[in-house]
Amino acid sequence: MASREVVGPRDRDPSVAVLAAAICGPQGEVLLRIHKPVERFVGGRMMVEVMALMEGLDAALGLGIRSVTIITGYRPLYNHMLGIWRPSGRNLADMINQVLSVRRKFDQCAISLVEPSQVSYVVKLATDSLTVLITKARAANANMAKRENCAICMEDADITKILVVEGCAHRFCFSCMKEHVKVKLLNGMLPGCPQDGCTTKLTVEGSKIFLSPRLLGIMVQRVREGQIPPNQKVYCPYPKCSALMSLREVMHPMQESSSKYTAADAATLRKCVKCRGSFCINCKVPWHDRMTCYDYKRRYPHARPEDAKLQNLARQRLWRQCVKCKHMIELAEGCYHMICVCGFEFCYTCGKEWKEKKATCSCPLWDEHNIIREVDEDDDDYVYDVYDEDDNDFYY
């Protein structure tokens, strides 16, 4: 059965079709039902009728049946099978020749033309299948055609590319959500819904649909960091590990039955829960055996070569280090009131703490060079270079 009902743009989906056939026993009992869509249908009803007959004959042979009677209510099929009519097209002629070839494999294969009412069972079978096919095609085309405006970029996006934020139901396109999350992650923050005033936090599971695997990995790290209070965070000092732990998680070697360490080591000696490397919880460096923390810091004021380079660069560029979590901060623009990722508020100029949103120093609040700046095309190019599609410029 073929339908010329249009289910999409006329130049793309001219028609849909299904074929149906039933194999019945001597008493009319149904032994096998066959119904399936015809892929990429471009022919007329006659072509579908021949295809259905081929399916039925092949199925009968598969069941071991050697004597059949073909019953049809479609006269053109009947006339073609008896040779009364000749097929007009090459494709139809080839299909009919295939059917005749299969027909010769039976010991007996007759054909009978009946009233359409006598094949109502397979007609209903085809009609039901066709209805389902049309419904699915309509739904697919409706979804493809439906678009929604993104509140951030103000552009229309396919409905399948719109994210509904879990927990608040605000809606934004994938592209804007990805850029929003990138910026938040780059600044060490766990991203939330971009809707103004909304406090809903994004989840890793809900963000999988629009984030790259690399950004998802960074987001997992941010979630982990957010679950540990700033004064409880400990990072493994071994470069090949750098695992994040809380103070309660770090392993205490003195608890191990075969410990080789002395009681004096108990105060500062800890082990990483991931790589099991020993380190000093006070100095945040690999374990300095037979040396106190005081002696170690005198001998190695910069535990790692990169620490000295960082401190030198910080002095040159006037960066400020958070006194609470030691996070290094650079003022790109804005006032001198800083809020670190750990939540500590301080003055960028002198480092003194802000309490209850008020400065405890007399330093200027801002410099107009950091507030007002010219924006040109080079700035836009820089932004796109930093946040490229490969996500290669994100470090944590």
Give your account of this protein's structure.
Residues 146-367, 150-196 form the RING-type domain. The protein is of the alpha+beta class and 396 residues long. The chain has eleven helices and 20 strands. It has helices at residues 45-62, 75-81, 90-103, 120-145, 174-186, 204-207, 213-226, 293-299, 305-317, 368-371, 377-386, and strands at residues 2-3, 16-24, 30-37, 67-72, 108-113, 147-149, 156-158, 162-164, 171-173, 233-235, 244-246, 269-271, 278-280, 285-286, 320-321, 328-329, 337-339, 345-347, 354-355, 358-359. The longest helix has 26 residues, at 120-145. Residues 5-14 and 371-396 have low confidence and may be disordered.
Rounded mean pLDDT is 79
Our measurement of the CA-to-CA distance between the termini, rounded to an integer number of angstroms, reads 61 Å
Measured on Cα atoms, how large is the radius of gyration? 37 Å
Neighbour order of strands in the largest sheet: 1-2-3
Q: By helix and strand content, what is the structural category?
A: alpha+beta
Give a short account of the largest sheet. 3 strands, antiparallel
Q: What is the helix tally? A: 11
Helix proportion of residues, in percent? 25-40%
Write down how many β-strands occur, each being a DSSP E stretch of 2 or more residues.
20
Q: What general outline do the C-alpha atoms trace?
A: elongated
Catalytic activity: [E2 ubiquitin-conjugating enzyme]-S-ubiquitinyl-L-cysteine + [acceptor protein]-L-lysine = [E2 ubiquitin-conjugating enzyme]-L-cysteine + [acceptor protein]-N(6)-ubiquitinyl-L-lysine
Domain RING-type: 146-367, 150-196
Family: Belongs to the RBR family. Ariadne subfamily.
Protein name: RBR-type E3 ubiquitin transferase
